[in-house]
Specification:
The protein is an alpha+beta fold and about 350 residues long. The protein is about 60% helix and about 10% strand.
Length: about 350
Amino acid sequence: MAWASLNRIVTAIAGLAFCLAVASDAAACPICIGFPKNTDADYLLNAQCVVLARPQQLDPFQYAAHEVLKGEYDGSKFDLLVDSATRRMLDAHQDRHVLLAQATQHGPWQHLGTTTPEFESIVRRLITIGVTWDGDNSAIERSQFFVRLFGHSEERIRNLAYLELGRAPYAMIRPLGRTISRDSLAPFLDNRQYTEWQGLAILLLAQSESDVDRERILKSFQDCMQYGLVTNLSAWTAAAVEVDPMGSLQQIETNYFTNVERTKEELDAVFLAITMLGAQEDLGLRERIIASYEVLLHQRPQFAPRVAQCLSAWKRTELSEQLTAISLQQRDFDFDQTLSIQRYVRGVAMASKLGPGDE
């Protein structure tokens, strides 16, 4: 491994604990769409038994346990057939196996794919180290394990590390974007096969200092606006605001929030992006986003409940009068939506009566 790459990984790991400590209670990144709820790591860590298997000698269409990696094998039959492609691959590579996991004793077996020696080595380490991930530091320790594998040359390992990072809060992803190389993102950014996974790569790209990368982000955001694209719209919006906060927010107001032809799907995606950014610690950007909310509410008052929730979380009072006026009008809000506005309005009123010294 080149020293430059090693230094980037060491820097990423060093900053990881701090990032996660800040974001430990935050939700997973809302824009890293397309991720499965469970990764291979979840299945391995939650399984009561994990085995490496190969086809039986007497019946090549049935699996036989070759080695138990975790727990105790209960002797149950593997209810999985060896397909011809897997059998040919295993015949050609005697050092490879199929990874099988069983969630409960005597329960069904899950096929987690074939292993290369490199992936098998990672599985062994994951199973051994993963049992120690418990308590408040478990998320930090788990992420430290996988961030070392980001950008790995083997596709399956690279994908697993990417999926694991995609579950992290944006407060953690943001600083890591400054330590992850552009080459590590290329397989996800430049391959249409990963379109549904590109949200994370786009957010990481937004931290690049390269003029080429920044131009790509702004151009992609312009394409979204011009052609009404919604695929990865949240990610491109967030990235554009990261690159050019004031200019991009002005474009959002002009091209989305005051444009009556924009669809609900487009507006939801853009709102999600700037709300995620507003939840970060940049107070100047948060104030500018609140100003954009005001523009949005004039044209689209149906966003009032979501705006009220954001302002309540951020303890901001700027739009209380506007939200009060909306709450007094007849709107198609359900009970929970109405309640979120009322709670915000009442909270602002109570805070103003108490005064800053009494809060």
